[in-house]
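lol ok so funny story. i was supposed to be doing the assay writeup but got distracted and ended up predicting the structure for this chain instead. priorities right. anyway since i did it might as well share w the group, maybe its usefull for someone
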Amino acid sequence: MSVPIRMPQLGESVVEGTIGRWLKQPGDWVEKDEPIAEIITDKVNAELPSPVAGRVEALLVPEGATVPAGQEIARVAEAAEPAPAGPPAAASAPAEAAAAPGGAPVEPAAGEAPSRAGGGRRIRSSPLVRRLAEEHQIDLTQIRGTGLGGRITKDDVLKYLAERERAAPAVPLEKPPEIARVPAAAVPPPPTAAAAPPPVLPSAPLAPGEERLPLSPMRRTIAEHLTRTHQTVPAAWTMVEVDVTALVRWREQVREEFRRREGVELTYLAPFVQVVVEALKEFPLLNARWEDEHLVLRRNIHLGIAVALEDGLIVPVLHHAEERNLVGIARALADLIARARAGTLTLSDVQGATFTVNNTGAFGSIVSVPIIPQGQSGIVTMEAIVKRPVVVDDAIAIRSLMNVCLSFDHRVVDGAVAGRFLQSIKRRLEGFQPPF
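and the output, tada:
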């Protein structure tokens, strides 16, 4: 029986995915739950498991194509066990084509891993770097890595591509095809019911010192996702300044003990997340989502935690944050962030976020205006903690201050609710009570 494989729904706010790489080819045997493809979204690169064991019948979507969730992308002929391997005639063609006349190896095909042609030298690179190399048919052994321990980074690959493009000889323009000589009367006029699409403008010529860098699938998807959000959500923004002196003093006192006892670092993010959860309980509209005719209130609080990567941004989800204490939040955050940076998140790790927290202060930012993720009503940032002189009881004192910024969907809440939500966060942080 032929079983369709469909593009999965990779989260409430993600309506499509990109085929980054097929891990199986037609005729290959695949076990149940064995990865058949690598799917790319703006949130995660995830492997798509086969729902059944069988033989791949067809791949219906090429690598690099973006398709909506639910679309059929492959078919697998379900079977209990693989048939004995025979010498099919079709299999001999690729094997013979693997070498050029005289036995010299040819350039790898787009679906092959160019790093295999390394002659035994171990290549240190990330999955994104290897994917870029496959897309542009690059032998990674030809690139000198500038990362830690000789690791090949995305910038190394992009620089190599730019140099290769500059070195490539100019290709003369071909003669226009004969179809251009067809009389205008023979060409049917375009339909008048729909407006013609805008013309595609040619790329501007490069000025001295400029170069074009190819977009990675993750960067392209992030751009499409955020553009769609910016165009469809009437976002508003507000900010409060918070005195976190008590929190800073407490963390400094217990930081080492916490690391020894719990095995993870006690960051400012953990207590901030706990405070945001309490504020969301107080103002549940910020945890709702907009639909055309109504709002959807959500009882569970699933916080998206923005994590910056070398090649982009990923937002793993801290599920059921309302059920965790400070220690549980700290452990869960350490695990999610570590797996996000290691590229080992699963699909469930990036699905279902109801609200997002972003620690922009980690980069020294003191004010930011984040874009609201699709399917959510708000995103809050914790900015850098800065010591400044302030007036306290008519005296000048040095205090630790932090800005908290909120972007919110104005269809869901008004400025008054958003302001009270931030005041709830401010009140809880300024009145911080040590939990242990």
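Helices lie at 89-97, 127-135, 154-167, 217-232, 245-262, 269-282, 326-342, 415-430. DSSP finds eight helices and 19 strands in the chain.
back to the writeup now i swear
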